[in-house]
Amino acid sequence: MRYIIICLFIFLIFFSCKKTITNNPPTIPLLDGPSEGVTDVPFTFSALSTDAEGEQISYQFDWGDGELSAWSEFLPSGTRIRQAKIWKEEGSYLIRVRAKDKQGAISDWSEAISVKIFKNRLKWRFKLEENEEISGVAIGPDGTIYFGEGTGGKYFYALNPDGTLKWQYRYEHQDFTSGCNSLIGADGTIYFWAGYWCGDGYLYALNPDGTLKWKYETYGYVLPPALGSDGTIYFRSDDQLYALNPDGTLKWKRFMRGGDAFSIGADGTIYLPAGETLYALQDTIVKWAFKVDEGWIITEPAIGPDGTIYFGSYADHLYALNPDGTLKWKIKKWLSSPPVVGKDGTVYFCAYGPDWKGVIYAINPDGQEKWQYELTEVVSSLAISEDGLIYFGTGSLYALNENGSLVWKQIFPDIATGGCTAIDREGTIYTIYYNTLSAFAGSAPLANSSWPKFRHDLRNTGNVVAKK
């Protein structure tokens, strides 16, 4: 009996001294992922958790639309997991994730990430080879989309409105580059320059079927040409302003040192930047000249409904001139994009803000600021649609309301979206990013304003009276 009591005593001592082992759940996962996206495109989120006992971990995502993902395979503690999600409906969603170990201990849900999903408006993409880039876009009367290859390119392209290739024209030499926006005449003739980076090349005129109409040899780099109301083609090269007849013969030329793209007013006046001076020319005659306070002119002139001329200078100013060349007003802004003008006369542009970030400004015709919209990057071009939306790209495509609020945004994980270059008659928005042309469904055609986009209209005439 005494022996039994001693054994029981030893047994109780042994088990009372044995350490109780508990299983803790994994740590609450750290969740990371995008804050914006579009429907029908996968967006990837990642999560990371650790387990105190070093056990393997499985993850489950709550996608905010009533769907929980299946528990993932078990991964070593501290291993990041990535899962993609496709949303079918636009809206705002709260994304969470939790973790469990192999013994079934489950962590609390992570802090939620809010994701805004916009309707996917992408219609199609046309992509060149990796080492090529697209140089400018023009749209013909029948909706054909025209553009050239940039550095080291070989071809000038024509696409159908559905993004399929219509034809391509091979440059004179394989190492030519198309250095400026193409221009479309009223009769459908396509004008563009291609040449060497040193400047020598040709201004080409192609028929709508892609055959050569004529070419004019140049001895300097050509900035975007402009089209007079009588069909005259104007362009700058080798410190000369040229005027060609529609058949490619020289009408006249005059010395005019280099500068930015130029514009044509309602009465045929050519507004031409040259260094620090904006010239107003009637054919070869200088009507007036306006010199900026310091720096030089860095944008094409945009023309308002009352004939006001707007342009930016390198000395951080937006200028507004009266049609007679006198100063109307100026404001201190360093423009990164040419100004555009809305139907009510509001002037829109992007300028450098703090830390070199971009800011979209809306300025009343009297020079007073209406609103601003802050970005993380600067914008090189804007365009306005007939319903008043302002479009621009910074890697994503934005659509702002006339009051400066965001209407929608397009962001894709596989490729960035560049500047808005055109809005066609069906409301399709075209953007360029290096070697890719993207087409997005918009809500209205290009605005019937005095200057709704760079080079004024779909044909890139640079002429305020040309049809949109």
Radius of gyration: 30 Å
| Poorly predicted runs | 6-20
Number of strands: 39
CATH topology name of the domain at 347-462, in short, is Methylamine Dehydrogenase, Chain H
Strand order of the largest sheet: 2-7-6-4
Give the proportion of residues in helices. under 10%
Per CATH, which architecture of the domain at 347-462? 7 Propeller
CATH-assigned homologous superfamily of the domain at 347-462: YVTN repeat-like/Quinoprotein amine dehydrogenase
How would you describe this structure to a colleague?
With 468 residues, the chain is mainly β. Among the domains are: 30-118, Immunoglobulin-like; 347-462, Methylamine Dehydrogenase, Chain H, CATH 2.130.10. The chain has one helix at 2-17, and strands at 30-32, 36-38, 43-48, 57-62, 81-85, 91-101, 113-118, 122-127, 134-139, 145-149, 155-159, 165-170, 183-184, 190-195, 200-206, 212-219, 226-227, 233-237, 240-244, 250-255, 263-264, 270-274, 277-282, 285-291, 302-303, 309-313, 317-321, 327-332, 340-341, 347-352, 358-363, 369-374, 382-384, 390-393, 397-400, 406-410, 419-423, 428-433, 436-441. Strands 2-7-6-4 form a four-stranded mixed beta sheet, with no helix packed on it. The protein has a four-stranded antiparallel beta sheet with strand order 8-39-38-37, with no helix packed on it. A hairpin with a 5-residue loop joins strand 35 and strand 36 (406-410). The longest helix is centred in the N-terminal third of the chain and has 16 residues, at 2-17. 42% of the residues are buried. The model is unreliable at 6-20 (pLDDT under 50). Residues 42-111 form the PKD domain. Residues 123-253, 295-410 form the Pyrrolo-quinoline quinone repeat domain. It comes from candidate division WOR-3 bacterium. This is PKD domain-containing protein.
